Structures are given as C-alpha cells and as structure tokens.
C-alpha cells in the first residue's frame, strides 16, 4: 500500500499528469518528436482511480482507453466488375474521422455495460462515431454497414486503427497501465487520450490527456520550407537534382 | 536502417530506396526512358502517398536524365534543335493534359481512364516494338542484310510543309509531325503522370526514322526539361515534393544510370529495342492483370483531398 501511495505521488508530480475528478492519468511521454530515424514509438499510459468515490461499492473497475489522432476526411470506394474490369463504382465519404484510433480495455467492452451506454460513451472500438455523408446530411450508420466495416478493416490493416481488449492491465485494484503503439506512419498533430471507467455496468469517471506528435529539427525545417516558401523550395530541389546529376556524371566520367 | 521522409510522413528503409533508385536508374540509362512508369508504382507499393510519389519521382528523373544527357552531349549525340521543336509541342500538350486531368477527376473516373490508357498504350507500343525487333533479329540470324533506307520512301506525314533539317538525326522532315509527337507525349505524360520517354523513343525511331542512339539521347534531354518544370509546378501547386525521398532516389538513380548507359552502348540496337519492348509489355500486362483479377479487398480508403 505504501508503494501504491508513492506511485500516486509520483504521478501527481509528473508534468504530463492530469486530474479529472477522481482519475489521475499520466503518459510516459507527452510529446513524440519525429527525427530522421523515427520509426514508431510505444507510449505507456498510467492511471490511478482514486478510491472511496460514489459507485465504488466493492465492484471491480473496468477501463476503456481511447486514443484519437487528428481528424481527417476519407472516402471509401467499392469496386465492382464492369466490362471485365474492376472499377470503383460506389463510394461513401467519412467526415472528420480520426486518422489514428486505438481502443484498449481490460476486457471486452461489451461485457462492461449495456450497449446503449457504451454507444453513448463511445466506449469500445465499434462504438466510435464515424460520421458519413448521407445525401446532404451527416450521420453515423449501423455497425453492420459494409462501408463502415471496410473502413475500419482497411485502417486496421494499415496499423493506424488498433483494437486490444486486453490492452489495459491492472497493477493494483485501482492502478492500471495501458501501452499503445504510435506507428511510423502516424499523422502529426495532437492526439487525445480519453479514459473512461465503469463499475457495475455504469460509467463512473472520465479523464483525458493530450499527446503531441510533431516533427523537429531537419524534418520540421523541410516541411516548413515546402509549405511557406514553395517557389524557393521547388527551385532549390530542382537545382539540387541537377547538382547530383552533374556530380555523378563527373565522378563516372571515363573519357 | 530507416529514414523518416518529412513530406511523405513515413519511415522507409534507406537501402530499399537506394536499390530501387539504382535499378530504375540502370533501366533509365540503358533505354533513355525516364523510368517514371516503373518508379511511381513501386513507391506507392512502399506506402508513399501517390501525389508525393509522382512529384518526388520527378526530382529523381531530373537528376538521372541530366547525368545521362551530359554523357550523350559530350559524345555529340543529342539533337538539340529536334529536342527544342519537340518541346514546343510538349509544353502545350502538358497544359492540355493537366486540364483534361481536372475534368476527368470531376467526373470521378480518372483511375479507370488512366488504367485503360496504360493498358492500351503499353500493350500496343510493347507489342509493336517486340514484333519489329524480333523481325530484325531473325533477319540477322538468317544472314540477310538490313533493308537500306531509300531516299523518297518517306511516309506522307513526313512530306508535309514546314520542312526542317535535323543534322544530328540525319533527317529532313516537316515540323508538323515533330510538334504533334511532342504534343501527344506532353498530353499523355500529364494525364498518366509519367515522363513519356518510353513513348518518345519508339516514336522517334519508327515515325521520324531517327537513329536509335540519337533518339535515346534526345529523349533524355526532353525528359530533363519536362521534369525540371514538373518539380517546380508540383512544389508550388501541391507542396508534395519530398526532397529527402528525392535525394535518396537520386543518389541510387544517377549511379545506376551511368552503368545503364554503358551497358546500352555495348548492346546491339535490335536487342535494346527487344528488351525495352518486353519491359513495356510486362508493365502493361501487370496493369491489365490488376484491373481484371478480383482484388482481395473490394474496398479502398483514400484521404478526401477535396475536403482539405
């Protein structure tokens, strides 16, 4: 128990720690810096559920951790056979879908609470809202929608959507840990880590921390130059190409 | 060893990229083609976004073609006037191609049009080159002499007005077909996202009767100018040029080009054309197979560029 208290104290003292009601959260790193050797990184989230709050009547806690990357609009296309060729025929637009999504929990979210509560809380991989353009309106569709399923499947295959029903590990009844990978292809921006706890089939508490993924040094300089000074960047790149071609030609000159 | 690409925003193995650049550079130097029709699909396969792949390949092609052009120029094999006349048509064609590109994209069938154009074009050009070079090799094997070019045996389109003399190519032809060829290459290049060297070389050889080596040298120079324009255009309009990706490809590519150019000079022209024909046909068949075989996943997800 003394060790646990010490852990709580450490967590409270950490710069990235956030207190949200009765939930104390801390990331192993609050900023991922992309350097030239960046090939992905694993981030660990520590959390402490403060004891003695309402709803804690001896029931074990359930935790769902949701990490969402910056939003982006996507189009999902379906191919059909036309005149012997497979061509894109039908499409659905997904508006403001997270570019990265990791859902971790200590057990299957469907066992934690009734389905409607889970959907309302967006707890669980399939319960995340994915807005589609339906005519002139925007709405999420049933989870069985083939375009919605295909979207999740493709993003999972790319390693950008992660579902792990055993990703949250309890170190003690009120202390948990969750690790999620940020792949090398992860988009840059601010990631939101939302933690929701359940006990006895009802939501108990929620908390959130932020994670920044950004380029630094050389990578930052190149990206900024390409954005802010496109003419200069283009001409320098073109000149660089000519220089490389010239050097190679001179170096390999035989006559 | 991986390296992070700042514009493509993903890590890749640096040796894979170097090898890719070297292999494509070798082919590029050997046949005088830009290699874009090979490099772009390979980069997309590695996970590079298509827009970044197309734009960054142009830096690699600029470096490779500059290195190659210098080699040929030193030997006096580039027909500069011919390249300039071709370029006049080429740049106009590029503009028309970009406009067509925009119209097709609005109707949502750009991918299909590109695939069909690829199949039709690569299939036809590849088959024609293959058949012609096989006939030539067969003649040689039987010990027959190659047909001597008779004066006045020019097809009708070379006898049109505005005749020009291109000394290096040893031809005296009308400027109209030359500009038309340049225009077509520029148009198709912009539409299909390729340099067009693999179309230009056979067009110069078979339509204008330019000697093979001069065709290759002149096509390289044309690729160089087009690619420099492409780099600046992509950088300004789309901000999709990845200088790091380009640099790694270039280093591999320029080295490959040198060896390719040397290998090309030691080989017989008929064999060279046979190999290029096989290569073009193989890529065409590959595209056709992709379109005909049922894909493993019927669904694809793309970032909505219009919503950005």
TrEMBL record, chain A:
Signal sequence annotation: 1-20
InterPro entries with a match to the protein in the record: CHP02186-rel_TM
Spans traversing the lipid bilayer: 231-252
Record Pfam families: Alph_Pro_TM (PF09608)
Keywords, sorted A to Z: Membrane, Signal, Transmembrane, Transmembrane helix
Superkingdom per UniProt: Bacteria
Name this polypeptide is given: TIGR02186 family protein
UniProt organism field: Ancylobacter koreensis
Lineage, uppermost ranks: Bacteria, Pseudomonadati, Pseudomonadota, Alphaproteobacteria, Hyphomicrobiales
UniProtKB/TrEMBL annotation, chain B:
Location in or out of the cell: Cell membrane; Membrane
A Pfam family the protein falls into: TauE
Annotated InterPro entries: TM_pro_TauE-like, TSUP/Inactive_protease-like
Keyword Transmembrane helix: yes
Primary location class: membrane
The entry's keywords: Cell membrane, Membrane, Transmembrane, Transmembrane helix
Membrane topology reported for the UniProt record: Multi-pass membrane protein
Keyword Ubl conjugation: no
Transmembrane segments: 12-35, 42-62, 82-103, 110-131, 171-201, 213-237, 243-260, 272-289
Family classification: Belongs to the 4-toluene sulfonate uptake permease (TSUP) (TC 2.A.102) family.
Protein name: Probable membrane transporter protein
Organism: Ancylobacter koreensis
Lineage: Bacteria, Pseudomonadati, Pseudomonadota, Alphaproteobacteria, Hyphomicrobiales
């Amino acid at each position: 128990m003394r060790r646990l208290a010490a852990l709580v104290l450490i967590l409270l003292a950490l710069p990235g720690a956030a207190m949200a009601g009765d939930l104390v959260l801390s990331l192993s790193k609050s900023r991922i810096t992309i350097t030239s050797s960046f090939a992905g990184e694993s981030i660990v989230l520590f959390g402490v559920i403060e004891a003695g709050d309402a709803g804690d009547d001896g029931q074990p806690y359930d935790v769902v951790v949701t990490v969402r990357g910056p939003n982006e609009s996507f189009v999902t296309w379906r191919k059909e056979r036309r005149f012997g060729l497979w061509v894109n025929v039908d499409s659905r637009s997904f508006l403001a879908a997270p570019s990265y999504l990791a859902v971790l929990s200590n057990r299957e979210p469907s066992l934690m609470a009734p389905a409607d509560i889970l959907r309302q809380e967006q707890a669980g991989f399939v319960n995340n809202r994915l807005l589609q353009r339906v005519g002139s309106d925007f709405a999420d569709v049933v989870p069985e929608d083939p375009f919605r399923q295909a979207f999740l499947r493709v993003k999972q295959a790319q390693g950008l959507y992660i579902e792990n029903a055993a990703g949250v590990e309890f170190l003690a009844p009120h202390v948990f840990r969750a690790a999620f990978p940020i792949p090398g292809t992860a988009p840059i921006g601010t990631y939101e880590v939302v933690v929701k706890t359940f006990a006895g089939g009802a939501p108990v508490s929620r908390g959130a921390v932020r994670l920044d993924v950004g380029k630094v040094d050389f990578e930052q300089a190149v990206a900024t130059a390409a954005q802010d000074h496109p003419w200069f960047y283009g001409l320098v790149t073109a000149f660089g190409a000519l220089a490389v071609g010239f050097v190679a030609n001179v170096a390999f000159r035989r006559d | 060893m991986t390296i992070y690409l700042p514009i493509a925003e993903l890590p890749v193995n640096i040796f894979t990229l170097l090898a890719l650049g070297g292999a494509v550079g070798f082919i590029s130097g050997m046949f005088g083609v830009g290699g874009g029709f090979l490099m772009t699909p390979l980069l997309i396969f590695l996970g590079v976004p298509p827009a970044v792949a197309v734009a960054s390949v142009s830096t690699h092609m600029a470096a490779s073609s500059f290195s190659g052009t210098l080699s040929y120029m030193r030997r006096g094999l580039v027909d500069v006037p011919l390249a300039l006349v071709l370029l006049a048509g080429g740049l106009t064609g590029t503009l028309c191609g970009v406009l067509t590109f925009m119209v097709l994209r609005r109707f949502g069938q750009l991918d299909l049009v590109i695939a069909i154009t690829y199949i039709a074009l690569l299939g036809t050009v590849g088959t024609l080159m293959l058949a012609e070079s096989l006939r030539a090799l067969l003649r040689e094997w039987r010990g027959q002499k190659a047909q001597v070019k008779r004066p006045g045996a020019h097809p009708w389109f070379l006898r049109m007005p505005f005749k020009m003399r291109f000394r290096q190519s040893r031809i005296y032809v009308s400027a109209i077909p030359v500009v038309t060829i340049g225009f077509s290459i520029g148009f198709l290049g912009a539409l299909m996202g390729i340099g067009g060297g693999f179309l230009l070389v056979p067009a110069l050889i078979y339509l204008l009767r330019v000697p093979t080596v001069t065709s290759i040298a002149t096509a390289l120079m044309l690729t160089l100018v087009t690619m420099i324009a492409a780099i600046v255009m992509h950088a300004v309009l789309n901000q999709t040029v990845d200088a790091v990706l380009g640099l790694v490809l270039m280093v591999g590519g320029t080295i490959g080009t040198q060896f390719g150019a040397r290998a090309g000079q030691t080989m017989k022209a008929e064999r060279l054309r046979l190999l290029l024909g096989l290569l073009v046909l193989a890529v065409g068949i590959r595209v056709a197979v992709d379109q005909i075989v049922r894909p493993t996943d019927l669904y694809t997800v793309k970032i909505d560029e219009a919503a950005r």
